[in-house]
Amino acid sequence: MTMKDRYVAHGFMVVGLLLAAVPLSGTAEGVPLSPPPTKDRVPAAHSDKAKALHAPFGDTRTAAAEIVAAGKTLYEGKGACFLCHGVSGKGDGPASHMQAAHPPRNFTDCAFQKERDDGELFWIIKYGSPGTGMQALIPNILSEGEGWKVVAYLRTFCKG
Ligand code: HEC
Q: Over the stretch 86-122, which tens digit does the pLDDT of each residue have?
């Protein structure tokens, strides 16, 4: 695949993500609330394996500044996370209104950040959250290494 082919393929993936989100459409007033962070999103059968996953650079909460910066670039660029989760991380991106049934997670919620292990966040990015607009994004859009950098960036949304 040439670089150009890759960008074209990526363009189709992003359109696909948006189309996948359409069946979940509904009318939400303002920013919908995420389900309680205490509710596991990784299916129980995969929970132990997910929790055992760790970033190659260690704890994502103490990642180096350049890793966090790379994660931000992916979140707001190639990964297109902002479309649903918002540049703000609050789950208020331009496509969030299409997902009233399963709102995108508000990453600024520190209770949520505390509740989730690194591996649980990574698992959802890799395999998606079944029955919601959250698609499996690794390896289709991000590599595993890129996925971990995005997790390090997600951690910075909690300012508490
Ligand atoms: C098409 C919309 C959409 C896009 C694009 C999207 N997400 Fe999501 N995401 C969601 C929705 C909806 C949920 C909530 C799913 C649920 O409730 O189980 C979610 C959930 C998550 C979760 C799980 C949160 C939890 O409760 O444990 C993580 C982590 C996540 N997204 C990360 C990302 C990252 C990183 C990207 C970009 C690489 C991304 N998402 C792109 C819609 C999206």
A: 999 999 999 988 877 888 999 999 999 999 999 999 9
- Which phi and psi (to 5°) does residue 131 adopt? 80, 10
**Could you identify the residue written with the tokens 């009233």?**
100
In a domain, 104, yes or no: yes
- Residues 109, 158 contacting (CB under 8 angstroms): yes
Indicate if ligand 1 lies below 6 Å from the C-beta of 21.
yes
Name the residue of 13, 116, 124, 132 to mutate for ligand 1: max ligand atoms within 8 A of Cβ: 124
Task: For ligand 1, atom 2, name the residue with the nearest CA.
Answer: 84
Total tally of structural domains belonging to the chain: 1
> Does any domain span residue 117?
yes
Instruction: Establish if 103 belongs to a structural domain.
Output: yes
* Nearest atom, ligand 1, residue 121 CA: 29
What's the whole-model pTM score?
0.85
* Token pair for 129: 């959250």
Model confidence over 120-159: pLDDT tens digits? Answer: 999 999 999 988 999 999 999 999 999 999 999 999 999 8
Domain membership of residue 146 as a residue range: 3-155
Judge whether 108 lies within some domain. yes
Residue pair 78/150 in contact by the 8 Å Cβ criterion: no
